[in-house]
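#lab-general

N.A. 3:47 PM
ok so I finally got the sequence cleaned up, no stray characters, all 181 residues accounted for. can someone with queue access submit it? mine expired

B.Y. 3:52 PM
send it over

N.A. 3:53 PM
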Amino acid sequence: MNIEIKKSKNPIKYEEAIEYMEKRLLDLSKDNSRDLIWILEHEELYTGGTSYKDEEILDKSIKIIKTNRGGKITYHGPGQLICYFVIDLKKRKKDIRKFVSLIEKTIMDTLKFYNIETFADKDNIGIWYKDNSNIKKIAAIGIRVSKWIAYHGFSININNDLDKYKSIIPCGIKDKGITSL
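B.Y. 4:20 PM
back already:
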């Protein structure tokens, strides 16, 4: 399978990234394009997936960009690695749960390479790190599937401003924290 790997050196505006992925989705559905993995960074913004609720916005002065990916509210900004993809699941097994598990495993294996032990949680999607007795999210996952083509992606907190998460209930989860590498 032929996958294009794209890496952007400068921050990409969220709206431009979504527009690019949706065009790629259409082209891929017509068999006019290759699968895509795109590594990038965004400038500061908050996005709300299809299942977020207004009460998860703690600071009502922030702007939330509504998006069609799954999940709730998250923050993106400098120091956070974003990995977007447009992957045709028809060319693989049509198994969304298995695809999400593969994403989780990829993130965990990558962090393990850096001696960071993490885990997935079937009740709270994403990748988690146990810091003493506290459990904190280090990577978020939000995807959408259209006609068996998966797109959007995941983010890993590398060296981003964790105070930005104080304006929201990240991913709708109140009883766990957020961390970075």
